[in-house]
Amino acid sequence: MYTKEQVAQTIDHAVLKAEFSVADLQIHAQMCMKKKVYSMCVKPCDIAIAKTLLEGSGVKVSCVLSFPHGADTKEVKAFQARQAIEHGVDEIDMVMNIGRFLGDDYHYVVEDIKAVVEVAHRHNVPVKVIQESGFLTLEQVAKACELAYMGGADFVKTSTGFGPGKATPEVIDVMVKTVGDKMKVKASGGIRTWEDAVGFLEQGVDRLGIGSTEAVLNGTKADGGY
Q1: Which residues are catalytic?
Q2: Interatomic CA distance for residues 28 and 43, integer angstroms
């Protein structure tokens, strides 16, 4: 049995919708501090504001990078990582170059991940690689996990929440079996109930990406959204 506090400490609370303003950030930051989540995951432009809002609370700031398509060049991704770190980010969730992966250009994908990891690890900032598993077969999920490991990343992550599909038990099973002994796993996208959250934790995930955190922790079902 998991307590609310235990589940909260696995949550990266997502504040990523395009329309979210600074006022929305303030509301979400208050909730994150109240619920004592692990981190608040924000857009790159919001890192510095989030750091200020959460100062002294113990809630970390994570950010997305090359979100949601993963289609920036590796040089741009490396620059984004440097800037995020300058702004105070604690963890980075980068999107894998999905198109290059689906075109079997695995060398490109690994070098793309390495470009971010090399910058981040110099500052002890963990990197999560979002593979957007809704585009992939289970065999491709396993391959993407292997490439993320080759690139030196710390986590594999299912989804942006803005693409097709969502975190599923089947995908998580493949991730845990493929790299669970040497990397951490983050389930993200479509987690809208307490049962969903606990189910993934029981499968062995280390972190949850949730936009409807309050509803999940309160045991009510969230409608729509991330």
Answers
A1: 93, 157, 186
A2: 13
